[in-house]
């Protein structure tokens, strides 16, 4: 169960769609971030979305910030995250002011928190999703790590398979695969088979 976080702007439709895509099965609480300045259209959108949350009995909180004061806004958002004590987060950055979206993202980066990010396209023709850890390079050795990632992309999904494909020693592959998994370039499913993550796929396109 996650804390769902989003700016809110003049139109609640992006938030409504985002909420119903996941529902109460995934969202336990909602944090909305809005400018302190009052705006009739924004207030109407806020009240409409809060009415929905009340009807489905989902906890919610509204945090008001001054978006032009980057330091204060990021600090306020970060403090809210610290006090929430949640461990799972969904960031919907489809609504509201762009600067508030960036302030939310900055707060997560400064706290070292991971989260799923989703942005609905303005033409409503799709949704881009990724994780905060996909934005962090981490420790990588381009010359060897890209060969390991390429091997996984081509179907090598165990340590032994990768060692055969790359001709690296098994111990070396084991060490590098575990580091790449820790850094978010690879994922291991329940039976330990290897899969590329979003960041791993980008890394291959950059360096192969």
Automatic annotation (TrEMBL):
Residue intervals of the Csa3 N-terminal domain: 3-120
InterPro entries: Csa3_N, WH-like_DNA-bd_sf, WH_DNA-bd_sf
Pfam families per UniProt: Csa3_N, HTH_24
Name used for this protein in its record: Winged helix-turn-helix transcriptional regulator
Source organism (scientific name): Candidatus Aramenus sulfurataquae
